[in-house]
Amino acid sequence: MPSASKPAGAPPRTAAAPVLGTRALNRATLERQLLLRRSTALSVEDAVTHLLGLQAQNVKPPYYALAARLEGFDPEDLSGLLAARDLVRIVTMRSTIHLHTADDALTLRPLVQGARDRELHAFRNGLTGVDLKELASLARAAVEEEPRTMKQLREVLLPRWPDADPQSLAVAARCSLPLVQVTPRGLWRRSGQVALTTAEHWLGRPSEPAPAPDATVLRYLAAFGPASVKDMQTWAGLTRLREAFERLRPQLRTFRDESGVELFDLPDAPRPDADTPAPARFLPEYDNLLLSHADRSRVVPAEYKGRTWKGNFSYSVFLVDGFLAGVWRVEEGTGEAKGSAVLTVEPFGTLNKAQRRELTEEAERLLRGPLSEADTYDIRFGTVIER
Q: 293-323 as b/e, with b when 16 or more CB fall inside 10 Å?
């Protein structure tokens, strides 16, 4: 006779998924992000592959991001890979510029193309009467003839659609085509203006068909897990990824966070103890550590939410004990002060002596290393700030 508490035909009960607290999630994510300890084994290209790309809205962030993650990082290694076209800068996740390997540029961009197509809806009023297929064809021919700036691209397209909004025409080309920023843009201390051509033309091979998301789910978990479906959707700027997670469920482990949200992870992925020490780290603006989860509390304390942005401007941030603790900036001297640098640390809360000492050591590492050309430097701690 069926029990009163279990209806006939009900699936067998399984043990409740283990709960991972905020610190446990923090340590797991830092380990995947190469921030719990710097990697001594990964090359620059391997690290970019593992991390599924690096935010590259500006030129310097990928260099600072890798300096925080790789032991002995030399910016010329990254610069050389860009010059050799092994790495490229291209719009992918969340409609933002990322630094990717050539292989990922040709596969991840097709994966998120649907999101770029939806992005165009915001510009539809400026594109009345514009045939988007024709626009893509004209834009492709123009940028493959020679790399073009966005201004030059507008000048190519506007004569065909003189009544359209010029900016909307250029945005439509960027959304429709996998446009990469050609070098010298992005090279270390040699950056030029943004000029664009197609990924296929720059890399000399065609894009791959849009892949099923399953393989990318596994890679996302390896770099950002444990994570929920919404977490990955936030990272990718995509929707409807639940089906992929469900297909993969038999080969994944599941957990819950302290709010009861289901989290997925690779069975053998590292999940360090919550009490594992986490070193101080300086990260650039737009670092994916802070942007790749729907629930950012694993890195961003609730009281500091929203304090790393001002309008569309993002501050560089630092971590203490694995969590966001403030912002920083470095200013290199000019004129008579050329050869000097000042790194200013602005904490959100009070730092104890040990934390200040650890941040000072990490700042010295940056200022003595190849990312700085300064012969002399100063490290300053600003007052506790409210943003």
A: bebbbbbbeeebeebbeeeeebbbbbbbebb
Q: Are 110 and 224 in contact (CB under 8 A)?
A: no
Do residues 173 and 151 touch, judged by C-beta distance below 8 A?
no
Asked if 198 contacts 178 with a C-beta cutoff of 8 angstroms, the reply is yes
Residue type, 33: Q
Distance CA 320, CA 351 (A): 9
Q: How far apart are CA 191 and CA 12, in angstroms?
A: 61
Omega of the bond leading into 147 within 30 degrees of 0 (cis) = no
Nearest CA to 178 among 86, 92, 49?
92
Assign residue 152 a region: left if phi > 0, alpha if psi is -120 to 50, beta otherwise? alpha
pLDDT digits (tens, 9 = 90+) for 304-347: 998 888 877 889 999 999 999 999 999 887 766 778 899 999 99
Say if CB 353 and CB 359 are below 8 A apart.
no
Which residues are paired to 344 by β-bridges? Answer: 329, 380
φ, ψ for residue 102, nearest 5 deg? -60, -45
Report the candidate in 238, 197, 199, 242 with the shortest Cα–Cα distance to residue 100: 199
Write out the two tokens for 123. 């510009």
* Whether the Cβ atoms of residue 303 and residue 383 lie closer than 8 Å to each other: no
Residue 35 in tokens: 């921030």
Q: Quote the pLDDT of residue 312.
A: 77
* Rounded-to-integer distance, Cα 352 and Cα 341, Å: 25
pLDDT in tens, 33-49: 999 999 999 999 999 99
Residue-level length of the chain:
387
CB count, 10 Å around CB of 58? 14
Q: Which two tokens stand for residue 226?
A: 């444990």
